[in-house]
Amino acid sequence: MENVSKPIGTDIGINPIDRRRFIRTCGLFGAAAVTGLAGSTAAAAGSSANSDYVRGACFVPTRRMNTYQVWWRFDEDQLDTQIGYATRIHLNALRMWLSPERWWETPDEVEDQVNRLLTIADRHGIRILLCLFKNCGPVEQTPETLRDESPVTGYEVYSPAREILNNPEAWGGCYEYVDWFMDRFGSDPRLLGIEIINEPRPGMKTEHDFALAMLHRAVASRGDRPLSIGCIALNDNLHYVDHGIDVLQSHPNFLHSVKHFRQYNEKRKRLEAKTGLPYWATEWQRIRTGGLGWDGVFPKGDDWKPDYASLAPLFHRNRIGNFFWSLMLRPSYLKVHETVRWMNGVFHEDGAVYSLADARAIANDDSLVFPERRTWPDWASEVGTRLQKFLDERDQGASERSG
Predict the structure, then answer these.
(1) Which residue from 150, 139, 149 is spatially nearest to 338, judged by alpha carbons?
(2) Does residue 31 register a pLDDT over 70?
(3) C-alpha span between 116 and 73 (Å, rounded)
(4) Residue 306 in contact with residue 358, Cβ under 8 Å?
(5) What SS3 state is found at 119?
(6) pLDDT mean across residues, the chain
(7) For the purposes of burial, counting CB atoms within 10 Å of the CB of 323, is it exposed (0-12), middle (13-18) or buried (19 or more)?
(8) What confidence tens digit (pLDDT) does each residue in 174-187 have?
(9) Distance between CA atoms of residues 162 and 272, nearest Å
């Protein structure tokens, strides 16, 4: 594992603290990061209202049940259309995931696809935050789960597979993958940044060790694109600050209330002040008053539906760089009671929105007009049918208990 502990910044002749100052001076986190001052050909395409901080969405194209399928079923026309939807709500960035599994199968094809994706996004004035390892999902990785395209049984899968992540002797292919990406895209101006891994849990030793090893590998051959880790909690970033990250992240997906947001925001400010690094909220969804849904208990009432309008004004008011989950309307990655899933997203495939209020809140623009259709997407209607059956049975049970 040669060179993985190379000091931060030595590749460009500066020390770690000066590197962070250098990155700030180059404007990688402000206007330059999102309107193209570092080289995008579509700088003029962005609205002036969204040019001073990151305003993005997590993006998995419609009908792709995991990130492997984004590259296995790569569709340039689909990407062009759906990335175009992001500009309609004044976004300037999208967060996406690459697939080492697909790269191991067809490396030249994936490299070409990454270039085509970045070219499409650049044409729309969108910068991509690209994550190398997903490390999240309710099912283990197998050839079958990777290619399961059913909206009922297809889910995100762990990447890399657990048998690789849990065995340092098997990390060779992951090092090669990181080396390839940093060599080809480490200074690509079409990228907003490079996220090494999504949601490594510091309390899980193998996940934490893997995250550090891949981060060190990226730092050893870093270019000028900022590096980050997709942390779940704000303080998780402290495990990586001294190892080369340039941007803080956390995932405040569901908050209990406006008061809860204010508490989170104060912690965010303190962490930025302590580390001297900028911050992006790289996953957020809505306020949930009846439980957050992570504990295997399905959300209460209508909390399973999208409600970005409950949080978007708070992110705008505090000018927090952010990515909501998700641009396209889809079943959730998580499942409760076998195949029961909630819904998230803004756009149907045809460009209609699930909620006009949400689209306007995200865009910070009450003048926007879209066709509104408050239904499950047609391609995932069976998920909605199963959910409704579950909700009816739950309500009946509650009624019987109260009677």
Answers:
(1) 139
(2) no
(3) 14
(4) yes
(5) helix
(6) 87
(7) buried
(8) 999 999 999 999 99
(9) 33
* More confident site: 136 or 335: 136
Cα Rg of the chain, angstroms: 20
Domains within the chain, CATH numbers bracketed = 10-402 (3.20.20.80)
Closest CA to 188 of 121, 265, 242, 250: 121
Beta-sheet strand order (sheet of 279-281): 227-230, 191-198, 127-133, 93-97, 55-58, 321-325, 279-281, 248-250
Please state the length of the chain: 403
Q: What is the pLDDT of residues 213-250, one digit of tens each?
A: 999 999 999 999 999 999 999 999 999 999 999 999 99
**Tokens representing 206?**
């193998």
Say if residues 161 and 141 touch (Cβ distance below 8 Å).
yes
3-state secondary structure 130-183: EEEECCCCCECCCHHHHCCCCCCCCCCECCCCHHHHCCHHHCHHHHHHHHHHHH
166 burial class (0-12, 13-18, 19+ CB within 10 angstroms)? middle
Tokens coding 151? 């909206």
Structure tokens at 295: 């504990």
> Which pair of structure tokens corresponds to residue 246?
């340039």
How many Å is the maximal CA-CA distance in the chain?
73
- Mean pLDDT within 300-312: 94
The whole-angstrom distance between residue 293's C-alpha and the CA centroid of its chain comes to 19
